[in-house]
């Protein structure tokens, strides 16, 4: 049970990282903040991009282009929220119900 809770906690933290990346890129694109004038913001957005972009890129390759809207973060967030439930449910069925 500890492993399951640890995995869920890591996924929750990664969800917040994705949301922070989305808000940061949106603020930069709408010129709310300028990362060139603030080294902390620049370092923060680069770190968030390094954590999130490698996961978003395969999703972008699968999704059709939608113009200005990027739905890959939404797909990733939905996957993070719903996939563990189905995975743990399947593992539970395989482990406990096959031995009955």
Contiguous uncertain segments of 5+ residues: none
Task: Determine the structural class based on helices, strands and strand pairing.
Answer: mainly alpha
Task: Let me know the largest β-sheet.
Answer: none
Tell me the helix content: over 70%
Overall 3D shape: elongated
**Number of H- or I-type helical stretches:** 3
Cα(first) to Cα(last) distance is: 21 Å
Radius of gyration computed on alpha carbons? 18 Å
Number of domains: 1
Average pLDDT number: 92
β-strand amount: under 5%
* Helix/strand order: HHH
Descriptive labels:
100 residues; mainly alpha; 78% helix; 0% strand
What can you see in these coordinates?
With 100 residues, this protein is mostly helical. The chain has one domain (2-97). The chain is built from three helices and no strands. The chain has helices at 2-29, 39-62, 72-97. Helix 1 (2-29) crosses helix 2. It is elongated, with a radius of gyration of 18 Å. The protein starts with a helix and ends with a helix.
């Amino acid at each position: 049970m500890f492993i399951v809770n640890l995995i869920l906690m890591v996924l929750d933290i990664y969800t917040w990282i994705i949301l922070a990346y989305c808000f940061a890129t949106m603020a930069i694109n709408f010129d709310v903040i300028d990362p060139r004038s603030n080294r902390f913001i620049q370092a923060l957005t680069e770190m968030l991009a390094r954590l999130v972009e490698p996961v978003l890129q395969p999703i972008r390759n699968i999704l059709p282009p939608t113009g200005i809207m990027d739905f890959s973060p939404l797909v990733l967030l939905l996957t993070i929220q719903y996939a563990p439930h189905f995975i743990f449910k399947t593992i539970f069925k395989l482990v406990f119900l096959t031995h009955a």
